Task: structure prediction
Amino acid sequence: EMVYHSITGMLGAGVLGLPAVFSHLGWAGGIIMLVFSLWVSWYTYLLLVWMHEVPDLSNKAGNGIRRLDRYDQLATYVLGRRRGRAVLLPFQLIVLLGVAITYTVVGGDSLRAFALFVNPNLAMGQWSFYLIFGAVQLLLSLLPSFNELSIVSLLGAIMSVAYCIIAVAMSARVHPDKATMNYAPELVERTPIERTMGIFNAITTVLFAYGGHNVALEIQATLPINAQHQSSVPRMEKGVHITFVVTAAAYFLVAILGFYAFGTSVADNVLLTFAHGPTSWVVAMADMFVVVHVAAGYQVYINPVFTMCEASLRKRTQTGTVHPVAQTLLRMALVVGVTVVGLLIPFFGSLMGLFGAIAITPTTFLLPPLLWILYKQPHKWGTEWMVNWFLVIITGIMGVLGTIGALYGIIKASSTYRIFVP
Result:
């Protein structure tokens, strides 16, 4: 159960945008970014796993161990309550809601692509499919907890692997004309600022693909500690390794084969490049796999937001409980808000870069090594100390550059976007 929660959270729709990253970074730059991001993401995920259980001698029922079941609990444990919440909470909310917004966009786009395959003359506007996807999320949001989401999450994990396989297989079938195919970003007609901003956005688009850290501790919290298992860490480590092996295989194959098949002309969503032709039915099936997966992944990310908001409400009531009606209205309001934002800025490539820069980069790549340094206090100038500080600094720089590039892309796309155009 923990493995497919992790795969659903990690192996997301961001994989479909990886071939387009190569159109800005080229072969060498794209592969270097994939390898670097994989290593850092794998390492920082394990840092969170290792900090899930901390000593607490007063907790005799827990064998002297206290479990930090949420990211905010870890931050407040290391930094103190006020500082920890101030440092983490804004980023965590942005990434959780940002992934939900991005999934609304890719879910609506994929749903529309499938509908156009069924009926090429369909007159429904793109906006209507974002509303349909949001309506589905309203229903799924009535499920009370991660445990209730197990079947949904399992289905999402299967779907994510399935559409990655289809993307790989379809790309492998393409035999590009080497005489006309372009793999060199510098040969694409772009202004210097477009070229620079595209590189910045591409870097954090790769980082966006590794956003599963924000629910890592919630997933680890589902692993019981008992007489048979006195720690959740070994089981979680095993699950993390499986998750990253599956994720790495999918990311590298989709990115490399997708770019090889289409070069710099590949779409932001590689599946849209296959939308026409005799095998379009396979792509339509993959589109539905994407819809199912992002519908499940959306819930994996939005549930911690529900938990935080409901906990805040409980503190404001005399009984310490939240009325079921108030709980339902709160969840509905959050889902409606996410849907509206997705409707206003439905730019998949730039959204991945933006949320990858301003939220996923800090919470996935920057904060775990920083918290580890403060918690473990490794020897100054030792290997562990230097490696973790290097990650804090370099990923912080990437986040700033990526934010600039993504905002440029959104502003440019917004100048020609009209919401209610069929």
About this structure: Strands lie at 53-55, 65-67. The first helix runs from residue 2 to 10. The mean pLDDT is 85. The first strand starts at residue 53 and ends at 55.
